[in-house]
Amino acid sequence: MLLSLNSGATDAIGLLALGGAFTSVMTGNMVLLGVSGIRGDAALALHAGAAIVCFVIGCAVGHRLAGGARDGDPVWPAEVSRALAVEFAVLAIYAAIWTALGGEVSDTAALGLLALNACALGIQSSSVQRFGVPGLSTTYLTGTLTTLVTRLTAGKPLRDVRLSALLLLGLIGGAALGALLSLHAAPFAPLLQLACVGTVLLAARSLVPAPVAA
Question: Is the pTM of this model over 0.85?
Fold first, then answer.
């Protein structure tokens, strides 16, 4: 849920302060790319295209670090934490630049910061796949919403959709908080993202099994 909250916050900041493109919803960016071509909006095309490219790069990095699901995996594989630590580092670089600018981001800086955020969420998106749970995502949640509706329509109890509901609530809540900070307390906006991923990393330490001595 915290990772989903991070996605919502990061997307809201991208839309409101970094050029109007998404950082995790690549379907939306592909639509924006098509619309920008018809409108002749080169700036929107550049931001949407850069977000797509950097998200893809992040996905590749995340998969290389976290790997795919394996038989006998623990509840929280150490490789997932390793990938999320790299995401945290990317977000820390973005936060340092944002802070240095005092939240007053030029068009050129916005493109670079958007790229860093998209790369970070690409890492997060692919690293979560290591859990091997079909439909589990903390970034693209249309499928999560579809799963929730179809299960409720089929008469499944609420407990069967609890995880999906929490992820969706996390995304919406994160978007609201990210928008609030970017509009009214811009210098502090990146702290929300760092807090989400940092808290997950700290909590995961209790779930990662200790290495077995040789």
Answer: yes
SS3 content of the chain, % helix, strand, coil (to 5): 75, 0, 25
Q: Which residues have C-beta within 8 Å of that of residue 152, sequence separation ≥ 6?
A: 161
Burial class (CB in 10 A: 0-12, 13-18, 19+), 201: middle
Average pLDDT estimate for 83-88: 97
Nearest Cα to Cα of residue 10 among 87, 102, 99, 76 = 87
From the number of C-beta atoms within 10 Å of its C-beta (0-12, 13-18, 19+), residue 109 rates as: middle
Cα–Cα distance, 144 to 167 (Å, whole number)? 8
Structure token digits, residue 188: 């502090």
Instruction: With beta carbons less than 8 A apart as the criterion, state whether 3 and 200 touch.
Output: yes
pLDDT value at position 1?
93
Q: Are 201 and 84 in contact (CB under 8 A)?
A: yes
Sign of CA dihedral 98, 103, 107, 111: positive
Q: How far is CA 78 from the centre of its chain?
A: 19
> Tokens 């945290």 correspond to what residue?
88
Residue labelled with tokens 């850069």: 50
